[in-house]
Amino acid sequence: MSSSSSALAAAGTTCRPCQGTGILGSPPRAQACPKCNGTGANQMQPIRVPFDLVLPNAVLTALQAGVVAQQQIDQDADFEWIETVSTQTGIYSVQLKDPSTGRFLSNANVNSLNFAGTAQLPHVLIEPYIWPRSSIVLALFTDLSNAGNTVQLVLRGYKLYPRNNPAQGSQGAILQA
Amino acid sequence: MNIWDIFRTNIPPRHALGVWLSTRRLWTRAFIPDRKDRVQLRGLRPFWVAFGDVTGPASIPASQFVEKRYVCQSDFIWYASMINTTVGGTASNPGVRVQIRDLSTSPGRGKKLSLTGVNDSNFAGSAQNPRYLRKPYRFHKGHTIVVRIQNLQTQTNNVQLVLEGVQDE
Lengths: 177, 169
Prior knowledge:
The structure holds 2 protein chains of 2 kinds.
Chain A: H1 3-11, E1 23-24, E2 31-32, E3 47-54, E4 58-60, E5 67-72, E6 78-88, E7 92-98, E8 103-104, E9 110-111, H2 112-115, E10 123-131, E11 136-143, E12 149-161
Antiparallel strand pairs in A: 1-2, 3-12, 4-12, 5-11, 6-10, 6-12, 7-8, 7-9, 7-11
Chain B: H1 35-38, E1 45-51, E2 58-60, E3 65-71, E4 76-85, E5 96-103, E6 111-112, E7 118-119, H2 120-123, E8 131-139, E9 144-151, E10 157-167
Antiparallel strand pairs in B: 1-10, 2-10, 3-9, 4-8, 4-10, 5-6, 5-7, 5-9
């Protein structure tokens, strides 16, 4: 096996539409293969393990603003966020921040009714967001209920373990099925 | 490839979010962006553009309107909308009427996304049941999103409209 084909085997199988070239068509109309994004190999799917990222309870007093709750993602795998749910004793607003990029995920606080659902009716992200391992999820809460408010915000999704190296960090090995 | 795009056979999934949706499973494909339209969203950062006050909803006096603006720092691809009002908000008793405009940086090239305001229950959903756009709409970098929210009630209404989408920066 040549070094290039062994590299392909390590990355995944050869992309069938472009037959490993990464290019479809011929110049001047050649374009990167949309199936493999021009890599020539099918991307191996990571092992997905369901995971709920629970932010620490935010305990708000009446109309209190800017209460920070943050949670670090485990070191063992990236986290793919696909759903948002929360429980609360009153209405609140929240703004999320990804400190690894320094960017907020909204231009202002988003009302809880517009941001998070419940386990029965979760709010689904059409495009999942991947939080890098060891990064921090930071949320800024503001109470809108004019009374004491205890909020638990949960980002639901999957941990992504690389298929070719599923045992990551010190959290224990993830066995392939 | 993200979780919504995976299928293990040659048969495409019947609906884009698959069986993960808690409701509306069978007819989901009719109203959320299809696989081809979702390609442009891949790998981008989710972003919520909230039209209200800094800490939450905007307070609109009886029968008055407010106009809120947001200047896109980079391309913003809008795919879902949510709204909540403290008064009204049902089909039989709408709370507010909403009109969105996409103001271009070139004079005269802005777009109204509706001729007149649209009642809130016809325009947006909630976090639990959002209204998805079948085709995501791209607000280009530098464009201004202008939202006019008209209170239809005879008392003060606290309103927040949220456009959900992705941003590429």
